[in-house]
Each structure stands twice: as C-alpha cells, then as structure tokens.
User: Fold these one by one.
Assistant:
Number 1:
Amino acid sequence: MGDSGPEEAVKGVVEDVKGKAKEVAGIVTDNDGLREEGQAQQDKAEAQRNAAKKEAEAEAAHAAEKAAEARQKAAE
C-alpha cells in the first residue's frame, strides 16, 4: 500500500487545517478563488482521512485473519 494509515490521517488533518485557513481568508478578502481552493483542499483532506480509515480497517482485518490462522494451527 502507499502511505501508512496514520501518516495519511495526519496529512488529512493538516490539509484540512490549511484548507479551512484558505477558505476563511478567501471569505474575509472576498476572494472566491482562494475560498474555492480552501474548500477543495478540505475535500482532499477528507479523502485522505477516509483512505487512512479504510487502510486501518484492512490492516485490522488482516491481523485478525492471521491470529485466527495461528489459533487454528495451534489447535491442530
């Protein structure tokens, strides 16, 4: 997989903060381009957080599968 789940989550939070700052700056300065850029950055942040969540879920499922296999081998 690409970046690790926690790294992707942190990147998502950072992107969200930067996006919110740009959006607010765009609103305050009446700059629609900057406001829209901030919104787009927040959308990217949400996608990164969602990807991190999915990756963490997949890793947890894989770990559970490995644990079940180990228990099964131990029981044989």
Note: The chain has two helices and no strands.
Number 2:
Amino acid sequence: MAYGGDVNRGPFLTTINWVFNAIALVAVLLRLASHHWRESQGWKKDDAFIILAMAANLARAIYVDVTISHGLGRHLEVLLEENPSGAIALLRLMVILQAIGLWTFTLPKLPVVALLVNIFGRNSKRLAIILYSAVGALILLVFIITITTFVQCTPVSGNWTGKGKCWNKNINVDLGYLAGSYSAFLDFAFALYPVLQVSKLQMERSRKILLAGSLSLGFLAGIITAYKLSTISSITDVADPTWATVPLEVWNSVEGTALILAASIPLTRPLILSFFHGIQALTSRMGGSSASGTAKSSKSSHGRSTNRSTNHKRLPSNGVSNSTDDILLHEGSGFENCSNIEAGNHRQSGPGIYKTVDILVKTKTLST
C-alpha cells in the first residue's frame, strides 16, 4: 500500500483522518440521540465515556492536520533543505502526536465495558470489577508509555533535536507492542463475551446472529489493531520519520473509528428500528382506504377477527417493536411494561438477559 504516493503522503492521511472521524462522530451522535430519545433519566456514565473517547479522537484528528501543515507525509531530507527550523518543529509536534494517539485506542474501551456491564452485569458486581480492572490495566500501561515518550531523552528536547542522552529507542517501541497486543486481546475478549451470552438465549437463530453481530464489532477493531502492530516498527526509522510514520497514523485513524463504532452501533438500534417503523407506518397510511377496505373485506369473509382469543394479552407499545433483542439492548425504563406478561407475574425492569420458559400443557378427555 503506497499510502498516498512517493512525494507527499499528507493529503492521503488528511482524507483518511477526517472521513473515518466523521463516521465515528455520526455514530456517537446517533447513539446519544437513541439513548436520550428512549431515556428520561438524563446523562449517564456511559455517555461521558463515549464523549470522552470521541473528544480524544477529534483532538488527535485536529493535531494530525496541524502536523501535516508542517510537513508530515513528506521526506525529512527535503524538509531540512527547505526549512531546517520548521523540520525540527515538525519532529516536536510528532512526538506529541504519538502520545495523543495512544489514547485513541484506550479510551473507547470504557464505553464498550459500560455497555457490557449494563446489559449482562447489572445484577453482578463481579463482571463490572473484572472488565473495568482489565481496562484500568491498559490505561495504566498507556499512561506510563505517555510519560516515557517524553522522558526517554534528557533533555526532553533531545526527542526531536537528537541532542542529549536518550534511552534505547526499542524500549518505547516494545512498550508500544505490549500495549497494542493487550488492546487487541481486550477487543477480542469484549467481542467474544456477548456472543457467548447471546448464544444461550431462546430466540430465533437469525435474531441471535443479528444481535450478536451488533455487540461483537470489537472483532473488527481487534483485527485492525493486530495489523497496526506491524506498522509500529516504522517509528524506529530515525532517518525519515516524517515519511515513515504515516502508515501508523493511518491505522490509528481507522482503529479509533472501529472502536467508537463498536461502542455506539448497538445502542443506535432502537432509533434505527423506530425510523423504519415510522417509514412503514407512513407507507401504510399512504395506502389509504384501499388497504383498509381490503382488510375489512378479509375479516368479513372469514367471519372472525385475527385476534381469536381473549386469553391473549397485548404488550404495550412504545413506538418500537418490543422484541427480545430490543429489551436486551435498551438501557432504562423504556421497556418496563414488558416485564409483566401476565397480571401478578412481576419481573424487575431494566436491562439484562431474561430466560423464557416454555410450559407445555397437555389435556386429556376423560370418558364417563
């Protein structure tokens, strides 16, 4: 992959950077809109997490543009010939960019964990402790790498001037491999867990696949992270870092977006379903009297209503089909009425997985 040609990779990086960040931003806005459209309890912890993660991605996106305007994506030799002081300033900006980029694959883990805990661990503190501790370990590791990115040289300016005493550059590179590998492991683990949980639910296979797929987008993020690790070696190219590190920044943009999508897409489902139900309702109304007349004629010819039993109770509607996967993905009181299937049969409302028990009743005619 050429990553934008042999002269200036900057425009290519700019395009990738903003296209993927725009996708991530749309996903976050839809997630927040869906959440607060169905919720009346205000902002929650997971909202703060996703906003923080998106803010980190946007901060990096803006900073990438700044470095590109200073020459990122061009060969260092050319930059030194044109403007030596400008090239040194660019190298300083790149050190800061490297530190910011570490957080774009770290912070999006928090809303993913919040989603898993809200769905699968509301009644168990153990899951929350395990998942948040796992992410906490990554945050601690990334914090250490952020510090070492600057202090590996004495004075700190030695990181971009080449003057001073510096550690072996492989130390920070190895720490980067460690953080990236652990991040990929968490992505795969957080994607696999909901698949295993959904597989235990009693629902149609097609619905299981759809639900599990929406909750396991972390697999894509894990694959991207694993591939990105192959580009980390580029930052050791001290001869031409302004050119060689572009692939790493490209995959940082893609990875950050994949993680944001993994945390956002599942919670946009109620809004998307409502949109399509609204389209269907509008289409139905546009059918007008012809559809209504057909329905009445059909009822008359059969001599009965489609609601054949008075023993069946209709579940309240909130504007969106209250299917099992909607209940599973919803956070809050929007589906509270679904918890009472029959009078006197109460179940705690809110998110979680509920097991459906089918009871088979057999009747036998007794002869007298």
Note: Confidence is low (pLDDT under 50) at residues 299-355.
Number 3:
Amino acid sequence: MTSRRLEESMGAVQMGLVNTFKGFQSKVLPPLSPKV
C-alpha cells in the first residue's frame, strides 16, 4: 500500500468517525447546545 492510499483511507475513516460523532452528539445533546 502506498503512502498516498494510506492517507486517503485514513482520511475516509476520520470523516466517518466525525460524521458518526456529530450524529451521536445531535441525538444526545439538547438542541440549545451551541454547534461546534
């Protein structure tokens, strides 16, 4: 695996984690909480 492929896969994983966290956050925290 080239370093380029590794960077792309890591970026995809990171984006997935961020999206999952945002979805979890929006469900758990009250709507009044500030968006970060």
Note: The mean pLDDT is 83.
